[in-house]
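Hi C.,

You asked whether I'd gotten around to modeling the 219-residue construct. I have! Everything is below, sequence then structure, no commentary in between.
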Amino acid sequence: METTSRVGAEGAPDTVAAEGVPAARLTVDGFLQAPFPWYGLDEAFTGPRRLMQVGTAADGTVQHGSTGHGDEPLARSDSGAEKQRFAVVVTVASSPVRGSGDGTGVLDATTVSSAAWLAGSGLLACTWPPQMDHTLRDDWLDQQTETAFELADDLDGPAWSALSLPVDGVPVPFHYRESEFGWVLAGSAHGGVHIGAYGRGMSAYGLGFSVVADIASYA
């Protein structure tokens, strides 16, 4: 999957971007530009929901994004991180190998492995082993990121198990794995998208996913 960029960021509603536009508004606009449906946890989840980030191709096309549920993820070395309960749902547009928008190259296909990789790297972003020296974090993150990439590229390998979860009320097979940092899963949904998810403190076995009817309601 090609390199992507983040559009918008989580922030308080009164946070203002350099151009004078509220950061929360920029985040919503990024999600609204997507030509595919967004997924989140279904109505069985009654806790707080939030927009996280969207990822774009070099030509600005929105390719994926994340919605958060429960606590806002913190690094495990932060105070209170071990008691957190959260799940993040990643929606990835399914697409074949194709030419780049500027005609200068070829963009990789996006698959279930893409969703697994984004979910795995998302979990790493809020995971630091307790007591790790700051000077070692870059090396640790590089090593773990490479491992997450290799695992996402081998969804039929022994690191993954099968898990069936409802998507829009219909059981869908997912690839699932756990680690000391949390859990990651990935599968395909209707509407030409793949779903990845990661979390900690909330059991993945009781989750269900559904299309977000109004993405602005997450802002």
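If it helps when you're writing up: The chain is about 20% helix and 30% strand.

Thanks,
B.
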